[in-house]
Amino acid sequence: MAEQGRRAVARRGHRRGHGTRGVTVKVSSETSRRLKYGAILLAVIASALVLTASTQTWYTLHLTATSGHAGTLTVAGSAAAPAVAALSLAGVAFGAALALAGRILRYVLAVLGLVLSASIIGSTASAIGDPIGSGITVVTNATGVAGDASVRAIIARADATAWPALALAGGIALLLATVLVVATGHLWPVSSRRYGATEDASSDKHAEPSDDDDEHLSAADQRARARDAAIGDWDELSRGDDPTAAESDDDA
Questions:
Q1: Which helix (H) or strand (E) holds 156?
Q2: Is residue 73 within 8 Å of residue 138, measured between CB atoms?
Q3: DSSP secondary structure code for residue 239 in this structure
C-alpha cells in the first residue's frame, strides 16, 4: 500500500510538472498593436514636449542695482540647457524609427532611447539645480561682464517657470517609453509587406480574350480589339516572327 501511494504521488507530480512545462504567454494581435503604438506615441509626445519646452522661457534673472545693470533678463530653455533641443529632435526620430524597425533593430534603438532620455534628464536636472549658472551666458552677452564669479555677483535672484519641470517630465516619459520597448518589443506584431501580382496572375491578366467574348462586345470595342491585334502582328513582324504561324498550327 505504501508503494502504491508513492507511485500515485509520483504520477500526480509528473502530470503537474508536465502541465506547467513550456507555458508561454500569448498576446492577442490587438494587444500587441496597442503595446507597440502606445510606446511609440509616448516617445513622440515626450520628445515633442521637451522640444516645446526648450523654446520657452525657463528663468527670469533679476540683476542687482549696484552693478549698474539693473533690470531683468530672460533665459530660454535653449540657453539654459543647450543640448536639450537637439536631443528632443533625436527623440522624435527615435519614435518614428520604432514604427518601421524589426525585432532586432528595436533593441538597438532602445539603447539609443536610453542614452537620449538619460541625457535629457541630466541636462534638465543640471539647469534646475543651478538656475543662475544656466543663465551666465545670457548675462554676459547682455552686460559684457565675464567670469562665473563676476556674473553671479550681479544676479540678485532667479525666478523659474514651469517649463524646466515639464522638460524633466518629458525626459522621464521618454525613458519610460524606452523601458516599455525593451519589455514588450518581442510581443509587437511583425510588419508585413504585400507584393504585386504573381507572374501567373499577370499572365492571366494579359491573356488574349477568346473569340466567344467578341459576341458580348460593342462595335467600337471590337474595332479597338482588331486594332490591338494588328499592332501586335506588326510587333511580331518587327521582331522577325511570323504572326500567321500560330494560326497555321491551330488550323492543323
A1: strand 155-160
A2: yes
A3: T
**Region of residue 195 (left: phi > 0; alpha: psi -120 to 50; beta: else):** beta
d(CA 59, CA 10) in angstroms, rounded, equals 72
- The pTM assigned to this predicted structure is 0.63
Q: Is 155 helix (H, G, I), strand (E, B) or coil?
A: strand
How far apart, in Å, are the Cα atoms of 43 and each of 77, 88, 93, 113, 194? 20, 10, 10, 9, 28
Nearest to 71 by CA among 163, 151, 139: 139
Neighbours of 38 (CB within 10 A): 13
Closest CA to 131 of 201, 77, 92, 173: 77
Percent pLDDT > 90 in the chain is 34
Domains annotated for the chain, with CATH where assigned, are 29-187 (1.20.140.150)
| CB neighbours of residue 63 within 10 Å | 21
Length of the chain: 252
For residue 239, what pLDDT is reported? 62
C-alpha neighbours within 13 Å on the C-beta side of residue 175: 13
H or E element that contains 232: helix 219-238
- What pLDDT score does 206 carry? 46
Strand 71-76's sheet: what is its strand order?
Answer: 71-76, 57-63, 155-160
